[in-house]
C-alpha cells in the first residue's frame, strides 16, 4: 500500500445524511479519493477535552449530540469497531512528542465522526480511533498532534480532521429563523476567508496558516469560536513536511455557510 493522503472535511449538520446537497454527495464519493484504508484515525471538533485524548473503546456506541432534528437521525447507528491496539500506538506517539495525552476507555461516535463516515464508508468495515481537540489550544498545537501521527499514513491509516471551514452558527440560525436572504456583506467575508485558506494551503504556507487569526481576513466573522477550524491543522500537520492542500469540495449553504474540504499530500 502506498502512503495515504490526509483529509480535512467540513462535516455539516447532523441532517447532512438526509439532505440532498452538494456537500452530502461529495462525502458519499469521498472513498473514491483514497485507497481503502486499514484503519481511520479521526479528530472531530465535537470531541473536546483538556489536552489531547485518545479513545481506546473497542466498540464505540453512538452520541446524538444535537437536538431538534428529524427523529430518524436518533435511530441511526454507525457500527464500525474501535481498534485498541492502534489507539495505544497513537497514545504512545503523542506521548513521545511531549503532548501528554490521556485515554478514554469508553466514548461513542459524535456527529462530527459518524455522519461523514456513514456517508463516505457506509459499510462500516474500517476500524476507527477517535482523537480529541482542545479548544483552549491554538493552531500550532493541533498541527503538532498531526505531525506526531504522520507516519501512520505509511501503514495504510487514513488520518481525518472533521470540522468546518466556517462556523458562524449565530448568523446561520438567525437567517433560518427569519427566512432572510443571504447577507451579501457576510457572504463576501466568508468568500475572502475561504479563498485565503485555499491559497495558503495550496502554497503550504505554514507560517501564515498557524497565525490565521492575525493574517486571514475576517476570522471572527467566520469562527466566533475556534474549535471547528482546529481539525484542519491536524490534517495539515499529519500530511508531513512540505505538505500542500488541494481543495476538493467548496459548496456553500444559504449563501455563506461554506463546506470546503481538503486533501493533503
UniProtKB/TrEMBL annotation:
Enzyme class: oxidoreductase
Protein EC: 1.13.11.-
GO MF annotations, alphabetized: ferrous iron binding; oxidoreductase activity, acting on single donors with incorporation of molecular oxygen, incorporation of two atoms of oxygen; zinc ion binding
Domain Extradiol ring-cleavage dioxygenase class III enzyme subunit B: 36-249
Gene source species: Aminobacter aminovorans
Keywords: Dioxygenase, Metal-binding, Oxidoreductase, Zinc
Classification via SUPFAM superfamilies: LigB-like (SSF53213)
Superkingdom, natural source: Bacteria
PANTHER family to which the protein is assigned, alphabetical: 4,5-DOPA DIOXYGENASE EXTRADIOL-LIKE PROTEIN
Cofactor: Zn(2+)
Protein name per UniProt: 4,5-DOPA dioxygenase extradiol
Similarity-based family: Belongs to the DODA-type extradiol aromatic ring-opening dioxygenase family.
